[in-house]
């Protein structure tokens, strides 16, 4: 059965050491499909060297999928675009825990950005699987969690449906569950119960019309997924800003509490399905 959790997060300043921090890591280009490469950025902090990963059974590689069109424009210094995105602005949080955050970019044949149709495609699943395969080779003793936010959760939900064995855990935050001008989102997608360990997290204050709280909860219940509820109202509440980073949709002001909840779920014993 799935498990439900409620996090009543008090508003506060997000730890400055995590927010929009300068990125340091390794930019990797991975051959995936014919003539296509997939870029990822591996952020290794002082406490997250490969030797640490090799000796820690509880160690996690946390692959981050940004929302919108997913084009984060990775450079040698990290993402050059969408740095205010919830997952990108908070990526250093994972370094402080000894985990390794990995930022996922668009593939070379979608350099201008991904639409929902591509995020839901077999080609996208191939790109994600290729990236995870490289990470498993580089960190053989680590567990892999795929974490998406907003439209990034579509990519996570897609690989979960097509190849649930690829990762050890799947996390979808503020998932786009209703169709809109940007595409179908995860509307109509169903998953095999118990095929993988999955968490859905949503903000009761989310004012984005394609990712309402009630729909995220309904998706979690239908899929048999664990569900965490948070509640905040800081930031934009009207469209289109309500679907952007500085809003409840992007967990403005409660980033640490939300990430603590995700981290606690990753470290907990899997619920019985």
Tag the structure with descriptive keywords.
273 residues, alpha/beta, Rossmann fold, 26% helix
Give an overview in words.
Helix 5 (122-138) packs across helix 6 (152-162). The longest helix is centred in the middle third of the chain and has 17 residues, at 122-138. The chain is globular. The strands form two sheets. Strands 1-11-10-9-8-4-7-3-2 form a nine-stranded mixed beta sheet, sandwiched between helices. A two-stranded antiparallel sheet has the order 5-6. It has eight helices and eleven strands. The protein has helices at 50-55, 86-89, 92-96, 116-119, 122-138, 152-162, 213-223, 255-267; strands at residues 4-7, 26-31, 37-42, 60-65, 74-75, 78-79, 100-107, 143-149, 169-173, 198-203, 226-230. It has one domain: Alpha/Beta hydrolase fold, catalytic domain (Rossmann fold, 3-Layer(aba) Sandwich). With 273 residues, it is of the alpha/beta class.
